From TrEMBL:
This is FAD dependent oxidoreductase domain-containing protein. The keyword Cell membrane does not apply. It holds the Pfam family DAO. GO terms for molecular function: oxidoreductase activity. One of its GO terms (cellular component) is cytoplasm. Keywords: Oxidoreductase. It comes from Pisum sativum.
Amino acid sequence: MQTSMNLSVGIPHSTTLNLFPQNRTRISAIKSLQSNPSPMDPPKKVVVCGGGVIGVCTAYFLAKKGAAVTLIEKSNIACAASGKAGGFLALDWCDGGPIEQLARASFNLHRSLSQELNGSQSYGYRSLEALSLTVTEEPKRTSSSSSSSDALPSWVDGPARGPKTIGTHETTAQVHPQLFTRTLIENAVEKHGVEILIGKLERLEVDGGRVESVVLEGGLVVDADAVVLALGPWSSKLELLSSRFRVSGLKAHSIVLEPREPNAITPHALFLTYNASNRRTPLDPEVYPRPTGEVYVCGMAKEEEVPDNPEEIRGDKESIEMLKRVAKTVSSHLGEDGVKVEQACFLPCTDDGVPIIGEITGVKGCYVATGHSCWGILNGPATGAAVAELVLDGYSTIVDLKKFSPARFAGRTKA
């Protein structure tokens, strides 16, 4: 188990600016790229709005293809779901559904990105096994209450039964999502000239049906040849998007624990059917050991209004306490005394359960990438690569984006 991972991946201070000017200013988004474009063929100026995994992956692949990219984020990189998710990756769990091609392409991109960016050390990329099992709370816990099946890792010593392997080292993997997102943007800044602006998106300026610029709170205007809106659950806060489709927020809770014996925790992701003594219906929490030595436990999701400021999101006490119960019931290694973080985040969900990726109808040069729900970390790389191709080449070869087009909501009445 790797315990020496660098957890201080950050953004160079000089690339992050606080932008709240008193006077209205217009700036150019043209950047200095390592590869100097021909004077006759200047780089396309692209503004990416949103510093989560989708926006960061998009900015990374755009810049790698030669665009001059400005990434705008209201708070901090990976400050919301992209920093608080589980980071679980699966090759074939979306097979048979509309995102099958996207998921498979992205799983493979994660592997190649890890090789390129030393992901095993910089952000905890590794393959792992995934198990499903049933856990039922018992009045009194005994050392013999767990199943004796060889399929159960030794640290799962609670009342577990029916373990089944649902993912192998060939089909399932993980990353530390915050470290992944920040490593990618750091690389994009240092090697591909991406610039980061900290400020609140106010509106887009559109002239003659084509996007011209992005306006931030305080009056700053950033010129652009194209804009990508990767706002996650905050898509509903922008009238340009909310007037066309609905993106709701599913509030998911999680805790991060320091196990009592970190070296005893093997790389097995657990997907539980959890029977709590005070509930009629089972819960479906998930447990992810991380190469950092921590263990991540998540679940207890419900639809809720998304606050304006991601820094204000707090977990519900009852949901957090339930996750603590799950942890200590599953394993004696995961006691409440080891809880380091209690948190919540909002997953962006669409009405049909399919991400929205493509150009906005009627606004040339304006693109959207949102609605990835619980699969945002998995599908970030392929989404970013596909959007980069769409913006710069006019079409995507990595993934067929037709089924993700925002035009599919045209004519529908929003709930």
